[in-house]
TrEMBL record:
Matching InterPro entries: CxC5
Name of protein: CxC5 like cysteine cluster associated with KDZ domain-containing protein
Sequence ranges assigned to domain CxC5 like cysteine cluster associated with KDZ in this UniProt record: 16-131
Source organism of the structure: Rotaria socialis
Length: 522
């Protein structure tokens, strides 16, 4: 909200004044208490083609002591910064803290540059500052490109996350950590990733219910397609003794540690303040698991029984499928190089090019990881088609036949639905399949299916991955869990562009059923 303040006022510093988004307290206990508006500090507004000085004002509720800013509410009692639909949707400027205010149009430009030009925060910052200098020869750079880019990244992340949650859920307010410092962000993101993934999956698996979407009615959500993409892989911690028990009916699944290993630390001036010797094995581990390095050096066994069990079933699956009539596209997914890298992303699409879910695949893209991924979607309440295209569908079907009704795929409502999916090979990879089942029952063009799959574009995955490859440098620059959140917001913005959904305003046709996260932060 921007107002012109009386020039004769002693508190008016500049002609542009960035004001609190409301003049009454939103706390129900305060019963519409009027707010006292006061000058906070001077700053600069980053507009599309200029950077102008401004005065920033805040207001405080006398009753609850909450401080209202231009885009958020600061609740010092609970160490929270609250963003509401009112504070973020219909405003001209976005401001959370510091001395830098962003024009909403500038943030919109960055989001579109991200999707269509694959720009990075640093690249956009350098281009923006250079443009200001070119437009005004007398313009002096107030912020370095590095500083502007880092601040833009933080503000954009919270701004787009807020808009995403307001569009895809029933929430009307979000509580972020009071401080936007790097130490607080990963904790907040990781605590709320299950909720964020849930509303993403439910919303986009039901997007055909929305009015005015660009999807072709005959193709929208008819089938789903799944594939892995490894070009956005990251270097991760080498600690292996990690499994997940997300789905008890599957037993333990090898997961691995998603965090980045220790690296050289630099101070604000860019000087290295901590280095690692060539023999220092902790360089391969995250800060949490570095303490296990000594046990590894002494040759002590640090694998749990659950890890051994999960690894054993993976090896058995590989051995059972590794025979003479194996299809040419099969891969064992066992990596042997020294650097421990993630396997990129495992992504599920709908036939209308919409991303409906993804998992950062830490250890592999094997059959059990695919099963874990699909069960997670089903249990999240996703409305999925009953046909699945996958380039390794034959191996997945043989694996399910082998383990169904065992402790590695016990029967229940979700595994039954999973097992009853029609598995089909995509047309591009089908050429490399040699089994009779691949040539017949898994061939989308087999006579038994008639024209059912005639208009289905089975190259959806490859086309999206071609788009995603352009972000590999950006994605490698983020560590978990920020990397996962950035990928989710990127997929959401891409989906909005694909379907023609506009984020401005609330969409009430899809109302996900969900439980608030246990952390209670959203």
């Amino acid at each position: 909200m921007s107002h012109k303040v009386d020039p004769s006022s002693s508190i008016d510093r500049y002609s542009i004044n960035v004001m609190p988004f409301t003049n009454v307290c939103r706390n129900m206990n305060c019963q519409g208490q009027s707010l006292d508006i006061v000058f906070s500090r001077t700053g600069h507004i980053a507009n599309l083609n200029s950077m102008e000085p401004c005065s920033i004002y805040t207001s405080t509720c006398r009753h609850c002591k909450c401080v209202y800013g231009p885009s958020s509410i600061l609740d010092s009692h609970n160490n929270q910064r609250i963003i509401t639909t009112q504070s973020i949707q219909d405003i001209d400027y976005v401001y959370f803290s510091g001395d830098l205010v962003y024009s909403r149009h500038l943030l919109a430009m960055f989001s579109n540059s991200l999707i269509h030009a694959h720009t990075t925060f640093q690249g956009f910052a350098e281009s923006y500052i250079s443009t200001l200098v070119d437009l005004d020869a007398n313009q002096t750079s107030i912020y370095s490109a590095n500083t502007f880019g880092k601040r833009l990244g933080i503000v954009w992340l919270y701004y787009e996350l807020s808009r995403f949650i307001f569009v895809t859920s029933c929430e009307t307010s979000i509580s972020f950590p009071k401080s936007f410092q790097p130490e607080a962000r990963p904790i907040f993101i990781e605590q709320n990733l299950p909720f964020i993934f849930h509303i993403f999956t439910v919303f986009w698996s039901n997007h055909r219910m929305l009015n005015g979407i660009k999807c072709k009615e005959k193709l929208c959500s008819r089938v789903m397609l799944i594939d892995g993409h490894q070009k956005c892989q990251r270097i991760i911690c080498q600690f292996e003794n990690l499994i997940n028990m997300n789905h008890p009916e599957m037993g333990p699944v090898v997961q691995g540690c998603p965090y980045a290993p220790n690296r050289k630390k630099k101070n604000e001036k860019g000087n290295v303040i901590r280095t690692f010797t060539h023999s220092d094995q902790s360089v391969f581990y995250c800060s949490h698991h570095a303490k296990y390095v000594d046990m590894t050096k002494n040759g002590e066994q640090h694998h749990t029984n659950q890890y051994e069990e999960a690894n054993k079933i993976d090896q058995q699956t590989i051995a059972e499928l590794n025979n003479e009539d194996i299809c040419n596209v099969y891969r064992s997914d066992i990596r042997t190089d020294q650097k421990n890298r993630s396997f990129g992303f495992l992504v599920t699409f709908l036939s209308c090019n919409v991303v409906v879910s993804f998992t950062e695949s830490i250890k592999s893209e094997g059959c059990r990881r695919v099963t874990d991924h699909l069960l997670t979607m089903l249990k999240s309440g996703a409305n999925l088609p009953d046909v699945l295209f996958y380039d390794n569908a034959c191996a997945l079907r043989l694996h399910w036949n082998k383990v169904l009704d065992t402790k590695y795929l016990a029967k229940n409502e979700f595994t039954n639905k999973l097992y009853n999916l029609l598995l089909v090979l995509d047309r591009f990879h089908r050429k490399g399949h040699t089994r009779p089942m691949c040539r017949k029952m898994m061939n989308p063009d087999d006579d038994r299916y008639g024209t059912k799959f005639k208009d289905i574009n089975t190259s959806v995955c490859e086309q999206f991955f071609s788009f995603l490859t352009k972000f590999r440098c950006s994605l490698r620059g983020f560590n978990y869990p920020t990397s996962t959140l950035f990928s989710l917001l990127l997929s959401h913005l891409k989906n909005c562009h694909t379907t023609g959904i506009k984020q401005k305003g609330a969409f009430t046709q899809v109302r996900p059923l969900y439980t608030r996260p246990s952390a209670g932060t959203i």
